[in-house]
Design goal:
By secondary structure, the chain is an alpha+beta fold. About 40% of the residues lie in helices and about 20% in strands.
Length: about 210
């Protein structure tokens, strides 16, 4: 894969080692709770993790991109109940993701197949695919691509990374768009999926086996 160095740098930047202690474990449990299609209270998280409430609060305070509702419940972190450009459907529930890479990663972390529908960031043309925990299939258009950027050193992962990671209807269209945006790399959907798998491996290595 010709983008190996670049993808390795992204994987290292996003590794849980650069996140608050316990982030990986909390993140996976939070994803699985959000996948049920309803807001998640900190009490629910604490019970699912078997953590003191203060520990949950401490980790969440350092994840500045977390979305909350008016009652203080979590409604999004990577996977969200609020509408974005990336629809993420599982078991008839319509959820959303912050970026193209999220849609490729999350099925493996929640153990469910997702149907993803998005659009080309350059032309608005529809892009869709089905993602199981182990593979991607039914990619339309077949030549769809994904943009990537090296994350900046900030706690706001959504602003520094996710806002730049889009689907495109073709590699040619994506490269034309990238030529007007500094620091962007274009990879195939398949390569982006492999990056997602690598990130998942890093993440799950940090989690006790009873939670992974």
């Amino acid at each position: 894969m010709k983008h190996t160095r670049y993808i390795t740098e992204i994987a290292e930047s996003l590794t849980p080692a650069n996140q608050p202690e316990g982030f990986g474990e909390l993140f996976v449990v939070l994803l699985r709770e959000l996948a049920k299609g309803r807001p998640v209270s900190q009490t629910t998280l604490a019970m699912s993790l078997d953590w003191p409430a203060q520990r949950v609060n401490t980790v969440l305070e350092r994840t500045t991109s977390t979305e909350y509702d008016d009652d203080g419940n979590i409604v999004g972190y990577g996977l969200t109940l609020r509408e974005t450009s990336h629809t993420f459907e599982i078991d008839g529930r319509r959820l959303y993701a912050w970026c193209a890479l999220d849609t490729l990663m999350f099925p493996a972390l929640i153990g469910q197949t997702a149907y993803v529908s998005s659009h080309c960031a350059a032309t608005g043309a529809p892009v869709s695919l089905t993602i199981s925990p182990n593979e991607i299939r039914d990619v339309v258009p077949a030549d769809a691509a994904v943009s990537l950027i090296l994350p900046q050193a900030t706690a706001d992962i959504r602003q520094s990374f996710c806002c730049h990671v889009h689907f495109f209807a073709s590699v040619v269209t994506a490269k034309d768009w990238a030529s007007k945006h500094e620091g962007v790399e274009i990879v195939s959907v398949q390569d982006a999926f492999r990056l997602g798998q690598e990130l998942n491996r890093h993440l799950l290595q940090t989690i006790p086996s009873r939670k992974a």
